[in-house]
Amino acid sequence: MKLITAIIQPERLDAVKQELFNAEVYKMTVSRVRGCGQQRGYSEHYRGQIHKVVLLEKVRLEIAVNDEYEDSTIRAIIKGAKSGNIGDGKIFVSDLTRCIRIRTEETGSEAIG
Ligand SMILES: Nc1ncnc2c1ncn2[C@@H]1O[C@H](COP(=O)(O)OP(=O)(O)OP(=O)(O)O)[C@@H](O)[C@H]1O
Ligand SMILES: [Mg+2]
Questions:
Q1: Could you tell me which residues are beta bridge partners of residue 91?
Q2: How far apart are the CA of 36 and the centre of ligand 2, in A?
Q3: Which of 4, 27, 60, 106 could form a disulfide with 110, with the two C-beta atoms 3.0–4.6 Å apart?
Q4: With a threshold of 0.85, does the pTM exceed it?
Q5: Does the beta carbon of 108 sit less than 6 angstroms from any atom of ligand 1?
Q6: What is the pLDDT of residues 20-47, one digit of tens each?
């Protein structure tokens, strides 16, 4: 199992959701977050020093999937989120060791799917 965490531009959320649905990925958690990447959000330079670091509004998606959905989920996120501009976002993939559906106490692949 994998936990796919994606940070995307908020205005891309609808497109990403559509692509995920097309890829038959229906379960997700979505949060509004703030962050900055390699441009440090917005920065002002004065005598070589950065004086201002601004955190930009972003959207975080957390999607837990069985291994066979890893690549298609990533492709769907890229398809929906990519404009080619800086700030398009980032995808982090982690190994997921446990998942438990509280209602039934099912675990692992059954609980995820
Ligand atoms: N290494 C990181 N650790 C944690 N969060 C990150 C990291 N890199 C990016 N993020 C998060 O992802 C958001 C979007 O990142 P962003 O797309 O700007 O990445 P980037 O590395 O600056 O690439 P680009 O040059 O395309 O802008 C950031 O605002 C931040 O919330
Ligand atoms: Mg950036």
A1: 6
A2: 6
A3: 106
A4: yes
A5: no
A6: 999 999 999 999 999 988 876 665 555 6
